[in-house]
Design goal:
The protein has 206 residues and is α+β, with helices and mostly antiparallel strands. The chain contains five helices and eight strands; from the N terminus they run E-E-H-H-H-E-E-E-H-E-H-E-E.
Length: 206
């Protein structure tokens, strides 16, 4: 089924120094560099494929192409997160994806994210998630956004706490992460729980 709003990909969003835009194929080298530099930071929370999976892996360019296909169809919102230092150009520092988007009687999606450790602690991910969720609620007219977080991932837990996501309990063996089926804490927000100021309005003033 089609999105409910005037969704046209590519979509770029900005709030202060934090931006969301589509990932670019020409960023392949830098993307692999930033992922390698952050391997120990992100590996405990990275989704992995179980041994029984038969899906073929994608190259970076295939991944970007698939992202754009899914985004144009409204099945996902796959964004690069950018950060702009005063006087500089925006720099890729992470990703935010709202995936598994379903319409019909459900109208929900699940958000996932990561950020370069070098810029952690600057309110980048909460801002990115607020931007993305506000777009999903306001333009795609989704009813529900979920976030699944490993109980040990205290940094990610702070993100949903800052934005007022509602805890919904533990889902055992919910997702294959770092080589095993792992339990996840679930958090969610419904559209009617967000005021006219949006999630962006829940962030502290810069």
């Amino acid at each position: 089924m089609k999105p409910g709003g005037a969704h046209r990909w590519p979509v770029s969003l900005q709030h202060g120094p934090v931006g969301l835009r589509p990932l670019r194929a020409r960023e392949e080298t830098y993307w692999y560099e930033i992922r390698a530099r952050n391997a120990s930071w992100t590996r405990p929370w990275d989704a992995t494929r179980p041994d029984e999976s038969t899906e073929a892996g994608l190259t970076f360019r295939q991944l970007v192409r698939q992202f754009n296909v899914d985004a144009r169809a409204g099945r996902a919102l796959p964004w690069a997160i950018t950060w702009t230092e005063p006087g500089d150009e925006p720099v890729l520092v992470g990703q935010l994806t709202i995936s598994g988007i379903t319409y019909g009687s459900a109208r929900w999606g699940m958000a996932g994210y990561w950020v370069d450790r070098a810029v952690a602690g600057r309110n980048i991910v909460p801002t990115a998630l607020a931007l993305g969720a506000d777009y999903a609620f306001g333009v795609l007219k989704l009813h529900r956004i979920e976030v699944a977080i490993r109980p040990e991932n205290v940094n990610s837990l702070r993100v949903v706490q800052k934005l007022g996501f509602r805890p919904e309990g533990m889902r055992p063996a919910f997702m294959h992460v770092n080589g095993e089926w792992r339990d996840h804490l679930m958090f969610a927000l419904h559209a009617e729980e967000v005021g006219p100021e949006g999630l962006i309005g829940r962030l502290p003033a810069r």
